[in-house]
Amino acid sequence: xxxxxxxxxxxxxxxxxxxxxxxxxxxxxxxxxxxxxxxxxxxxxxxxxxxxxxxxxxxxxxxxxxxxxxxxxxxxxxxxxxxxxxxxxxxxxxxxxxxxxxxxxxxxxxxxxxxxxxx
Length: 119
What we know:
The structure is a single chain. By secondary structure, the protein is of the alpha+beta class. The chain is built from three helices and three strands; from the N terminus they run αβαβαβ. The chain has a single domain, classed as Phosphoribosylformylglycinamidine synthase subunit PurS (Mth169, Chain: A, 2-Layer Sandwich), CATH 3.30.1280.10. The termini are far apart. Belongs to the PurS family. InterPro entries: PurS, PurS-like_sf. Part of the FGAM synthase complex composed of 1 PurL, 1 PurQ and 2 PurS subunits.
């Protein structure tokens, strides 16, 4: 059964009110910059070159079997993206990322890390 537009008006008004509430909530979440403008650190963790990378060798062998002979070797690792607080300066952010990477994200006996910080 088709409804007349007059019957739908209360429902439409309800939806408009819900949209206004959502816009207000998004506006009131904070004055910080949007996600893609925050300072982010990209941390790459790989096994040291002296450590046998069995998973990397398995991947390389699979690639050869799948007819990708141009890949000579594979080293597997981990990748982390850290979104940093807006209050950190460049030097403080770098020190914090180094500390986190060396103490939390890696096993310093068998892993190395590199990082890049985007402002």
